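Sharing a chain and its predicted structure for anyone who wants a worked example. Both blocks are below, sequence first, tokens second.
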Amino acid sequence: MWTAILQTAETEWLSREAQRRLVQLQALDMIDELQHALDSYTRRTGRNADWRTLLDSRVLLGIPVDPTGIPFDLIDGRVQLSKSSALWPPPEEPAAAGRPR
């Protein structure tokens, strides 16, 4: 949807917003990949990890950053977009129908 909006937007603000949303989605994909690597490490070793541990174990080659160059946060075992990132706040998925909020 955001790609279609970007391609057809007739106003600059809408183009900028579509581009921002696409980059946010890219960051969320990166978070999913990083979380998978972190969860895999935790299952394999039985230890919780921080960025330093993952670097020392060569699970990662560097501190992961979002598409704007801001490092992701790792809080309580969850990879998150930093609140200092221009991509904050990340888009939220709507609650599933019939599921309590």
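Comments welcome. The radius of gyration is 17 Å.
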